[in-house]
Amino acid sequence: MSRIRTIAVGALARVEGEGALRVRVRDGAVEIVEFNIYEPPRFFEKLVAGRHFAEVPDIVARICGICPVAYQMTACRALEKALGVEVSAGVRTLRRLLYHGEWIQSHALHVHLLHLPDFLGFESGFAMAADHPELVESGFRMKGLGNRIMEVVGGRAVHPVNVAVGGFHAWPDGEAVRALLPDLERGLGDALALVDRVAGLDFPPFAPVPETVCLEPESGYPLDEGRIVSSAGLDVDEGAFAAHFQERQVAWSTALHCLRLPGETPYLVGPLARLRRCRDRLPPRAAAAADACGFGRDETSPFRAIVARAIEIAAAFEGALAIVREWETPPGPARAEVRPHAGAAAAATEAPRGLLWHRYALDADGRVAGAAIVPPTSQNQARIEADLRAFLPGILAADDAEVTFRCEQLVRGYDPCISCATHFLTVSLDRGGG
User: Fold this and answer.
1) How many domains does the chain have?
2) CATH code assigned at 293
3) Reduced to 3 states, what is the DSSP secondary structure of residue 185?
4) What share of the chain is helix, strand, coil (3-state, %, to 5)?
5) What is the domain extent for residue 397?
6) Whether pLDDT at 10 is above 60
């Protein structure tokens, strides 16, 4: 008689959103791994249909409260390409500062409150604060500073209101920008110490070798532009994304799975993918911290993604510092003139969780005739399932509680943004008799 083992967890804690994981093991072999995102779809691609291009950045920002800038920046770049708009050097620099702020606050939140408790034996970041107050306080400082950058540049920490197609509605106050400098210097020190701290954690021995995908810009570390490249040799313009990647619906999830063509294979986006391809593009102090802790470009374990995020926090602080030290409010308007006309274009940026792709088609009045948005978590879903399928055989000898914890810990390594993906985790591990 076959033996089927089942484990169920009502909800996965310490991820953004809600979802489930179904695992069935028959006679010691993993039969089914289904990463089930069950939040209702929110249909943002339909919500922007018929809206004027100028409204789009404020609408798509609502896709996520943690990474609204990523959606705004990607939408603005795609719409500017469709409309033939060239933004100024000052706008490009200020957008990078705004994006650095989002990376800092998003990564700091994930590392300190969502993933680090797994490694230190706590059920939450707040429980961890009793024994490690310095870690939690440092995390809140970093997140707070990232939010302040977003407020100064974007006008608001959540769903910024100063972002516009063609630039910004207004230049930020120059003194407010320069006032960020001392806190940014302290934040960089905190981030470098964090790299050393998390690199010394105890990581499960799991090292998958996925195809990794990210942007590669002409210079610098991936952030707001570049060509789409992969560890398997892909190197295409961002407009060619749909020719090499395809979303498909699966029966067990409200979110689409995005797969690599032509083989419909899973792939990885996010910090590990960026460091695998572009580690040599890190700014100096972040690169030195990565060297000192021995974090190489071949790291692909989702458990060690916490180290990659700490390295990227340091890189974001360095990038923000470089901009703030040199910032002078440019002469002239903060927004280029934009004339509506028909057109279509796509763009990609690197959200904290990975590659984010938008495409818009506009009619002659500048209204959206069609839109496509592919968030990072949709791209990582199939990879999460593949990693769980590979990881589970090595831990099935453990009891149900330990198996569940290890599965949750692995999934948290991806920092899934489930609400973004529904345009997490109930675990059901089936290994009982019958």
Assistant:
1) 1
2) 1.10.645.10
3) helix
4) 45, 20, 35
5) 3-433
6) no
